[in-house]
Design a protein that fits this description.
The protein starts with 5 loop residues before the first helix and ends in a 5-residue tail after the last helix. Helix content is about 55%, strand content about 0%. It has about 150 residues and is mainly alpha-helical. It has six helices and no strands. The radius of gyration is 31 Å and the shape is rod-shaped. The longest helix is centred in the middle third of the chain and has 21 residues, at about 55-75.
């Protein structure tokens, strides 16, 4: 009886082996990856790789929080109950930055979104009040709005 699969079992010398094809594909992929177009202009940095402005806003908020804490930890003169001018100035600077910069800066990277979310939770735990409480006593709505407007979503 004749084997119908005999023709399939014979090696095809014209066609390269699987190992040879894999080596060829690897070499061609390596050339494509290393190739730089001669006529292309230098690529501008991707927006995701550029520094996220929210990171600077968070760092400044941390600094102003510490300045405000230091001002409130300073002793008042004997008999004084009202906040000192330094305490008022530190509080005004803190809230001006939060309302004017932090709560208006949209994160541009996934890392910026995560950092803003983490900072908001840490701030609430440390300071015992929400950064973004609005007039209706709703919390985290403005922070979530910033994250939702991020181009990385």
């Amino acid at each position: 009886m004749r084997n119908p699969f005999a023709l399939l079992a014979k090696p095809n010398t014209v066609r390269p082996s699987l190992r040879e094809r894999a080596a060829s594909l690897k070499a061609s992929a390596s050339r494509v990856i290393r190739r730089k177009p001669a006529d292309a202009a230098p690529a501008a940095p991707a927006p995701a790789l550029a520094a996220d402005p929210i990171l600077a806003a968070i760092a400044e908020t941390r600094r102003l929080t510490m300045a405000r804490t230091r001002a409130y930890n300073a002793e008042l003169p004997a008999g004084e109950l009202d906040p000192s001018p330094e305490q008022n100035a530190a509080t005004d600077a803190f809230f001006a930055h939060v309302d004017g910069v932090l709560l208006k800066t949209v994160p541009t990277t996934a890392a910026g979104c995560a950092a803003l979310a983490r900072f908001t939770v840490e701030f609430l735990e440390d300071e015992k009040f929400s950064l973004d409480e609005d007039e209706a006593n709703e919390q985290h709505v403005r922070i979530l709005g910033l994250i939702a407007r991020s181009p990385m979503l």
